Amino acid sequence: MSTEEKTPRVSERTRLAVAGARAASESIFREGGRGGRTGNALFFALLLLGIGIALIGLVTILTWSAVEGGPRLSWDLFTEGPNTILPAMAGFKTSILGTLYVIGGVIMLAVPIGVGAAIYLEEYADNTRWYNRLIELNIQNLAGVPSIVFGILGLAFIVRGPLSLGFVAAAGSLTLTLLVLPTVILASREAIRAVPSSIRAGSLALGATQWQTIWRNVLPSALPGILTGVILAVSRALGEAAPLLLVGAATFVPYDPEFWDGGYSVLPVQIFNYAGRPQDEFRVLAAAGVIVMLIVLLAVNSFAIWLRNRYERKW
Q1: Where are the alpha helices (DSSP H) in the chain?
Q2: For residue range 81-98, what is the model confidence (pLDDT) as tens digits?
């Protein structure tokens, strides 16, 4: 009898709470009056304008690439190397391999270092310590540094200077890792911060250590957000040319590159080389190279998106 009396009382309380929240929300939005509604409409219009400009620019580039480079699209673009004498025989094989080497190195370095830094800053760091605040400030500032600065840094400390790796693909990977590392750290921190604290409290209450809680509960839950940051970082690294020109990405490499030895090239540098030549055949080849780079980008990002969707969780 007592249970039957409590059930409708709780339901009535819930109904009243929902009605009160709805009334409070409606009162907040009504307080703006005509000026508030005009501001909301103007802000919404600006958002649509920004999205429209971005989409128009993207569609224009894709259309131009398809129209200009469409006649040159063939399997030879993936199987043939560069050829400055016969444009009809030229392809992007060596630059595709160089791009995969460089991007593979970036992923292998940026993901463990970036995620490790994010775990330390979110789970272990004491924000009252000056050096932890200094690390956070530097990471945020590095995210806005121009890419050419990282190229100069890589030339001085990685190609020459302390590491002295020379003009090899490994030097390009290290330089681009420095460039995209702030993106991975910031995205990973946001993903780890978004995991509900009840997950941590429940794990610790069951007797798990802090590291066991992070490894078995926090990281799997934050994996979709971390992969989103990796996708953004890889997309930026694939399109960068300026820092790689300083650390040895050559414009003409007729042989298959290696990671630790010999010269290398990447797709943006190869496209830049073809686009700067006076013959019309090379300009068509450069437009076809844009499509090739988009195919490589979509292939790499599709795998990361598949992983993110596979491990995505909703709280």
Answers
A1: 2-30, 33-69, 76-79, 93-119, 130-142, 147-154, 169-193, 197-205, 210-213, 219-239, 242-246, 267-275, 280-310
A2: 887 787 778 888 888 888
For 243, other C-beta atoms within 10 Å of its C-beta total 24
292 CB contacts (<8 Å, ≥6 apart)?
Answer: 77, 78, 92, 96, 267
Residues whose CB falls within 8 Å of the CB of residue 279, separated by 6 or more in sequence, listed in order: 87
Instruction: Quote the pTM value.
Output: 0.76
Alpha-carbon torsion, ordered 283, 98, 84, 81, to 10 deg? -100
CB 84 within 8 A of CB 252: yes
- Residue 93 corresponds to which tokens in the numbers above? 């094989």
> In sequence order, what DSSP letters do the residues of 222-290 get, joined into one string?
HHHHHHHHHHHHHHHHHH--HHHHHTTB-S---S---SSSS-B--HHHHHHHHHTSSSHHHHHHHHHHH
169, 264 Cβ separation under 8 angstroms: yes
Contact between 269 and 245 (Cβ < 8 Å): yes
Beta partners for 264?
Answer: 249
Exposure b/e, 147-159, CB count within 10 A at least 16 = b: beebbebbbebbb
Asked if 102 contacts 314 with a C-beta cutoff of 8 angstroms, the reply is no
41-61 pLDDT, tens digit each: 888 889 999 999 989 988 888
Amino acid, res. 149: V
